[in-house]
Amino acid sequence: MTFEIDNIELSIDGIPVLNGIYLHSKIGKITGILGSNGTGKSSLLKILFGSLQPQNKLLRIDKKAYLKPLFQSGLVKYLPQHALIPKAMLMGKAFHLYRVDWLNFTSHFPEFSKHKNARADELSGGEIRVVEIYLSLKSESKLVMLDEPFSHIAPLFMAELKQLLNGEKKEKAIILTDHMYRPVIELADELYLLKNGCTKRITDLQDLESYRYLNPDTL
Amino acid sequence: MLSTLKLAFSFYLKFLWISVLINILFLVFGIAFPVAIFYKLILSLLVLWTYKIVGKGEKLIFYQNLKLSSSMLFGISFFFDTFLLIIMYLIRWNFL
Predict the structure, then answer these.
(1) A173 near A1, Cβ under 8 Å?
(2) Which of A14, A78, A81, A163 has a beta carbon 3.0–4.6 Å from A147's, enabling a disulfide?
(3) H or E element: which one contains A213?
(4) Nearest by CB to A51, which of B3, B7, B61?
(5) The pTM is what?
(6) Residue A135, Cβ neighbours under 10 Å: how many?
(7) Positive or negative, the Cα torsion across A121, A124, A125, A127?
(8) How far apart (Å, rounded) are the C-alpha atoms in residues A21 and A83?
(9) Is the pLDDT of residue A163 over 90?
(10) Which helix (H) or strand (E) holds A70?
């Protein structure tokens, strides 16, 4: 299954934010999106998800135009940049609603066993992010979009999450964006840079320096 | 359908106590049932507007991930709220 989006026109208060976008994601691949602050990475994911309405867009699933908000298809799970799980919700309840097995989760992350009956706001920022990434990845879908998932994550959890991402991509298309560019580069099978409202396909990592996303000799 | 109702109810729970309080005020001040429903509808639309316009719409992604749009979420929540209002008015009419 492939997901493609292009012809996006998004202006906010008359200022163009996105105008020359092409993004392609398919099952079996992780698509990475890099870009400086304010380039529209989160807006792009929201448009793809269907929670932000641009002036224009064309979304295709397996080459066929899909006109409704994508979330209504049930094919997508989206982890936004901010908190996903409502503050007062119990962990066990969130897993139940997303139909994800808590015991399976704690087999990957035994440190969380004690948190089943904890509210979301009782976990630390890093802990809740781990839970949210796991829920987004493991809940039933064909496309998973992760917006800055790695913020506040401890290195030990990062290794486990990378393994999970590589495992899940066999059955899902994954779109990943984060300012921690090294894990994104490491995980991504296809890489895009978002700059001046346009996506640029990156095939040579040196381009990240040429396009001034990274300082020279960073890589 | 049941899972959709359960999901919407988990959202509605955060408004339950304030809603009970408002219903009690309606009963204390003798507000007629149709007028109470109308006020509740206005309040629900105001909350929906607040969520959508004042940026809280992003807090609904948890529910949208499970195919539940914001309009659907608030519609079902209004249904729960109306049911609660009916129960409280029935108690008032029959027992108090």
Answers:
(1) yes
(2) A81
(3) none
(4) B61
(5) 0.89
(6) 23
(7) negative
(8) 27
(9) yes
(10) none
Q: Return the residue of B nearest to A74 by Cα.
A: B67
Q: Two tokens at A10? A: 């998004």
Considering only CA atoms, which of A48, A34, A46, A42 is closest in space to residue A6? A48
Provide the sign of the torsion angle of the four alpha carbons A201, A23, A54, A149, taken in this order. Answer: negative
Instruction: For residue B8, give the chain A residue with the closest CA.
Output: A97
Contact across the interface for B64 and A71, Cβ inside 8 Å? yes
Which residue, among A52, A89, A97, would best test binding to B if mutated, counting the most B CBs under 10 Å from its CB?
A97
In chain B, which stretches have pLDDT less than 50?
Answer: none
How far, in Å, are A37, A44, A87, B48, B50 from residue A82 at the CA level? 15, 15, 12, 20, 18
Strand A190-195 versus strand A30-35 pairing type? parallel
Picking from B91, B94, B95, the residue whose alpha carbon sits closest to that of residue B23 is B91
User: What's the rounded Cα separation, in Å, for the pair A76 and A73?
Assistant: 7
List of residues 6+ apart from B74 with CB closer than 8 A: B44, B47, B48, B51
**Chain B positions in Cβ-Cβ contact with residue A80 (cut-off 8 Å):** 58, 61
Length of chain B: 96
ipTM of the complex: 0.90
B65: closest chain A residue by CA: A77
